[in-house]
Amino acid sequence: MASIEPSALNVESAVRQRYGEAARAREEALCCPTNYDPRFLEVIPEEVLVKDYGCGDPSVHARRGDRVLDLGSGAGKIAFILSQVVGREGRVTGVDFHDDMLELSRSHQRTVGERLGWHNVEFRKGRIQDLALDLDRIEAYLQQRPVRSTADLEALREEEERLRREQPLVPDGSVDLVVSNCVLNLVRSEDKAAMFGEIFRVLDRGGRVAIADIVSDEDVPDRLQHDPELWSGCISGAFREDAFLHAFEAAGFHGVALASWAEQPFAVVEGIEFRSVTVTAHKGKQGPCYEHNQAVVYRGPYRRVLDDDGHAYPRGTRVAVCAKTFHLLRSGPYAADFVFVEPRAVVPADSTAPFDCARTAPRHPRETKGMEYQVTATGTACGSSGTDCC
Fold it and tell me: pLDDT tens digit string along 285-342?
């Protein structure tokens, strides 16, 4: 018998059915053992804790005041933990398309808020591969205008486009941190590129992601990808571990890193190991390059490293960088790895020249100090404490 390609209908139907059942009764097969900070669990109702399904704790990457988007928020456990991490100044939005899970998380939303003393969590209905379309609004539209003809179908599509444009579920650049806990693998393969594009779109410049998911150490064969039970069980749709990181890079992220990698696999199927990982990445490397006479020095320990734009940094060498790259390295995940050398004279913004970021070259110290710099000084402090060296 010829194999059948997994369609949007049978993949989403299998996922919806399984997680609908898991919202009513706990299913152990959907869980990876994960340790959460017990302080954050005290205010969360037992029903949410019991019916939570995931493979990591991306909440540890949140900061106070963050605007956080939780993809596939399920019963709401991670969202309620994040509510406490970001504090009353922050905001948490959970997105899910399973009605049973949304009903569960929304039913406890007020209780958790009252226990905390602030209400900064909401749950919205949508697909994580289309974060612009508000499915609650679509359902309200369909209540008034059911689809009974091709004309009705065309009107529905026009309404979807209007909502994406005028009332997006998650607007562009509105989020500081996107998290997810074992959900990206549930999206069918042909929608995964759009999903990464949506994650990138909703993040503000300088925003981050922290994604816990299941990956495989080998490609998943077609016959396993066509098994609805394995797909809904976080197996069939798993990324190959290296391809998972490459997907973030292809979407435009930088500083992509494995924040955690489980030594023991979550499952082994036909010799293929499936394990939990957490990936972090950052948005903000796009934009023009201008010369500000700045340099960076890679501290080591490696002899030479490359960044996501192909710039090479030999250990201990002053490397010329543009102002954008200088700021990116200084403020991002690389800050501890470099020494940052500012020019003696600030280059006025209206007199900066374009910088060729397609090349890597050493920066002569005179470019930073100034060609006319002729100072002679002795007895200056040579230690960070300002004490005499001799």
Answer: 999 999 999 999 999 999 999 999 999 999 999 999 999 999 999 988 999 999 999 9
Taken in order of first residue, the domains within the chain and their CATH numbers are 8-132+168-282 (3.40.50.150), 294-369 (3.40.5)
The model carries a pTM of 0.87
SS (H, E, C) the chain: CCCCCCCHHHHHHHHHHHHHHHHHCCCHHHCCCCCCCHHHCCCCCHHHHHCCCCCCCHHHHCCCCCEEEEECCCCCHHHHHHHHHHCCCCEEEEEECCHHHHHHHHHCHHHHHHHHCCCCEEEEECECCECCCCHHHHHHHHHHCCCCCHHHHHHHHHHHHHHHHHCCCCCCCCEEEEEEECCHHHCCHHHHHHHHHHHHHHEEEEEEEEEEEEEECCCCCHHHHCCHHHHHCCCCCCEEHHHHHHHHHHCCCEEEEEEEECCCCCEEECCEEEEEEEEEEECCCCCCCECCCEEEEECCCCCEEECCCCCEEEECCEEEECHHHHHHHHHCCCHHHEEEECCCCCCCHHHCCECCCCCCCECCHHHHHCCCCCCCCCCCCCCCCCCCCC
